[in-house]
Design goal:
Blueprint: H1 15-24, H2 31-38, H3 42-49, H4 57-67, H5 71-85, H6 89-92
């Protein structure tokens, strides 16, 4: 199955931005408090919230346990973000098309 640009969200936010705006800020948590509650370092959480690092599988489990949502839904946000921000690769990558070979 090929994922096309039409299937992707238009310019999706980094998942760290979503966590910051929808989970951490409404609770009035500081980055330090949230990091302590999530069991990660302040630096790790800060880099994630500021879009400098990707959501790992482990972080997806931590976020889902702390704020609900499934790990899959959090990871899907990272996938959509990555696909949108790397869509230029589609035109650069040259491969053999085996779908039309008999």
């Amino acid at each position: 199955m090929r994922i096309t640009t039409s299937m992707m969200m238009h310019n999706p936010p980094h998942p760290g931005e979503v966590v910051k705006q929808l989970c951490i800020e409404p609770l009035g948590l500081s980055v330090t408090e949230a990091a302590l509650g999530l069991g990660v370092s302040r630096k790790t959480l800060s880099e994630f919230l500021n879009g400098k690092s990707r959501m790992s599988i482990e972080m997806a489990f931590r976020i889902s346990k702390a704020f609900n949502g499934s790990p899959e839904s959090w990871l899907m946000q990272q996938l959509q973000y990555d696909l949108w921000n790397n869509r230029h690769l589609d035109k650069k990558i040259q491969v053999e098309n085996y779908q039309n070979v008999s």
